[in-house]
Amino acid sequence: MNPPFRIAIAGLGTVGSGVMKALAARGDELSRRAGRNLEIVAVSARDASKARGFAVKNWTADPLALAKGDADVVVELIGGDEGVARALVETALANKKHVVTANKALLAKHGKALAVLAEQNGVSLKFEAAAAGGIPIIKALRESLIAHGVEAVKGILNGTCNYILTEMEATGRPFADVLKDAQALGYAEADPTLDIGGGDTAHKLALLSSLAFGAAPDLSAIAVEGIAHITPDDIAFASEFGFRIKLLGVARRTAHGLDQRVHPAMVRARSPLANVNGAANGVLVDAGAAGPFFFSGRGAGEAPTASAVISDIVEAASGKLGPVFGQPAASLVNQKSAPHGAAVSPWYLRFEVLDLPGVLAEIAGHLADAGVSIESMIQRGRAPGEPVAIVMITHDTAQSGVERALKAIAASDKVRARPCMIPMEAA
Amino acid sequence: MNPPFRIAIAGLGTVGSGVMKALAARGDELSRRAGRNLEIVAVSARDASKARGFAVKNWTADPLALAKGDADVVVELIGGDEGVARALVETALANKKHVVTANKALLAKHGKALAVLAEQNGVSLKFEAAAAGGIPIIKALRESLIAHGVEAVKGILNGTCNYILTEMEATGRPFADVLKDAQALGYAEADPTLDIGGGDTAHKLALLSSLAFGAAPDLSAIAVEGIAHITPDDIAFASEFGFRIKLLGVARRTAHGLDQRVHPAMVRARSPLANVNGAANGVLVDAGAAGPFFFSGRGAGEAPTASAVISDIVEAASGKLGPVFGQPAASLVNQKSAPHGAAVSPWYLRFEVLDLPGVLAEIAGHLADAGVSIESMIQRGRAPGEPVAIVMITHDTAQSGVERALKAIAASDKVRARPCMIPMEAA
Questions:
Q1: Any alpha helices (H) in A221-287, and if so which ranges?
Q2: Given strand A415-423, what is the order of strands in its sheet?
Q3: B288 in helix, strand or coil?
Q4: Same-domain pairing of B65 and B123
Q5: B22 touches chain A (CB under 8 A)
Q6: pLDDT of residue A341
Q7: Domain containing A404 — which CATH number?
Q8: CATH code of the domain containing B103
Q9: C-alpha closest to that of B26 among B15, B14, B38, B36
Q10: What range does the domain containing A373 cover?
């Protein structure tokens, strides 16, 4: 038998507790899989005495001490893209300790530098838990779907947004109400900005994109739009057209560079992504000649995230190294980004207008001026005096053309609120 | 840079050709991922001069020579559970060469012994291509979904069957007609027995089951039923009840042992497995506390299967070892099997009966005698003189009870043909 594998865990929130419990419950089998005994030699958390349902031995107040002790791996579950988490990961790697982390924000911001540091020190930096929770999408992109080159990755990567959109569809209630309930139920944070604004999805997309395309993670290259402006009307109209609305992270190789975006999108009601419901996550990978592959499951929560962390720990224990992002970190480059607005698709457009003569002519005129051609249209009557929703589906159009038209239309005094535009995904 | 990784390929059929092409087209990136140059040093195929669209260098007539040469890895793509394929794999492992194979029949029959041999010799035996083609389900079960213990694996693992069932549903045509077309199109073999009889699915299930449950692959423990008896009526009735019919491989941990079965099953029309269409494959893994995870994609064909083979080659090249079935091969045991007939579910039953007085009373009587209680029933009129289809859905019932009732009913002279029974899956 090999010497034991010494594990230090920093952070005992939901995920850290899940890791402790699973190692306690199934340590024997997991040690057999790792080829050596898995031993927790140090734990750092804010409060050693908090009731957690398990005993905390070898507690230390200072997380940084874990990076300097005798652990073989440091499991960073503190979070945050700077501060203690960053210092802990950097110090651990520099001290030739493997690092396992669930920290998407840290890796989205400093992924390349940390990967270079890990590879220079001959240790691994693993982060299966940083995107899509228990779904092994990091490993699939890093090690499995590599033969033919990935063309695109599209993911539902934020369970909070997907829960809210699913609830809005099921109940017909507006965004703000459903968000409030989600907060009460613990599905959304007190400050939900990072989730509903799309930032969390962008962090995860940056990592998937790096693995798929050999790019350095680059948040600044991702255009981000959240879900707060989606209305029950949009969801109902989508359904009439045979679509559902999902917040997607999309990274795609194009002739003009790498196209990375986070935004609500219409997906065909029968497509795999459309049927990812509630707090679940799902990822569609277009693996070139090998075809599309789809993965779904629980993307957050104690057990699914702990499952991902533990798979990384076992892999580190069994001596599997390999480059952090699948290719040597030094070779990751800031790939050329596709120019903003180049993405071509049909678009769903919704205008809230005053029911006045000439309003349709004005909208149609601006669309024609921008070269946007309309495939179908719905106008629905409302109570007298209320604004009327006009909904259109365009033919294939570049985003920039639609944006130009909508800017002109938004300036009209017959149009209430900001017009809504949502791309319709082919798959 | 590490020394080059020397690859010997045995078999240049569809998959072997796909591997050669992908290595030729993307060898640079793949070498970067592997951390060393990937070099094909020997190839064995029946005919060196056949036109394949690529040049075959270093050809050798005798595949066994590959196991004795200077290759680091032998890629076995010959097929068959004995003969040359088995001799090649055994000799290569004994000579301390890594082996990558797509050979599900060989591993289902000799998996444990070969894994022991590989582990004794300190080399890897990798087989991602042996189940579900390009879907990285072998790796997911071996390395990722390990923290909480897998409760069940359910897979659509045979593209030919799934293509036939999908076509039957789309066109309403009978099994035999659709099979003939599938053969003409190359989706089914001239001798389709292994596919439509469920044997191929059983081979693959034996491997998934080993990875999920630490069992030695054991074909004899799998009850196998094919799809030849499924009629367009069954598919239409299933649809009325909100279900679709799929050939599933199911392995499940039960209180009475490991339950492994291959059979047509009704799956809810909105479930992920129900929406795996055409020649695609899909696998649902119930990963205990971590929840269900679903994987789908192309399960056969040149590029998807080559993708799986190449991921294994790159992994072997990068020095990742680890036990063949996730746990040390010597620890794989023949797990206790759940007794036949213990599986409990609702059942779809179809009887073709003569339209005579008393027939329903007779059927109902036999069902009652066996303790089978009926949840709903459809009887549909036909042209006079033709047999009538009676369809029933039972409440939760053990398979053995349904079988007992159907045996009695089949003996009636009012019943035409063998009654059909299909379990209805909860997910």
A1: 232-240
A2: A374-380, A388-394, A347-353, A415-423
A3: helix
A4: yes
A5: yes
A6: 87
A7: 3.30.70.260
A8: 3.40.50.720
A9: B38
A10: 344-423
- CB contact burial B107-134 (16+ within 10 A = b; e otherwise): bbbbbbebbbbbbebebbbbbbbbbbbb
pLDDT tens for residues A237-283?
999 999 999 999 999 999 999 999 999 999 999 999 999 999 999 99
- DSSP symbol at B301: S
Determine the residue of chain A that is closest to B138 in CA distance. Answer: A144
Q: How high is the pLDDT of residue A1?
A: 63
Phi, psi of B420 (to 5 degrees): -105, 135
- Tell me if chain B has a CB within 8 Å of the CB of A68: no
Q: Which residues contact B225 (CB under 8 A, 6 or more apart)?
A: B198, B261, B262, B263, B264
CA nearest B99: which of B80, B137, B72?
Answer: B72
CA distance B92 to chain A (A): 23
- Is A204 assigned a catalytic role? yes
Kindly indicate the confidence band of residue A427, based on its pLDDT and cuts at 50, 70 and 90: low
Q: Match 């992270």 to its residue by tokens.
A: A249
Looking at chain B from residue 129 to 158, which residues have their Cβ under 8 Å from any Cβ of chain A? 134-136, 139-140, 143-149
What CA–CA distance (Å, rounded) separates B419 from A127?
52
Catalytic-labelled residue, pool A204, A320, A407, A414: A204
Look up residue A107 and give its two tokens.
Answer: 């890796």
Q: pLDDT per residue over B284-306, tens digit each?
A: 999 999 999 999 999 999 999 99
pTM of the model: 0.96
Residue B342 CA to residue A363 CA, distance in Å, equals: 66
Residue B335 in tokens: 């797990």
Residue B427 binned pLDDT confidence (cut-offs 50, 70, 90): low
pLDDT grade for A347, boundaries at 50, 70 and 90: very high
Instruction: Return the structure tokens found at B279.
Output: 């020649």
d(CA B424, CA B421): 10
> Residue with structure tokens 């070139």?
A288
- The pLDDT tens digits for A8-45 are 999 999 999 999 999 999 999 999 999 999 999 999 99
Residues A19 and A75 in one domain: yes
Q: A118 and A216 share a domain? A: no
In a domain, B98, yes or no: yes
Q: Are residues B157 and B288 in the same domain?
A: yes
pLDDT band at residue B335, thresholds of 50, 70 and 90? confident
* β-sheet bridge partners, residue A422: A348
CA distance A158 to B230: 41
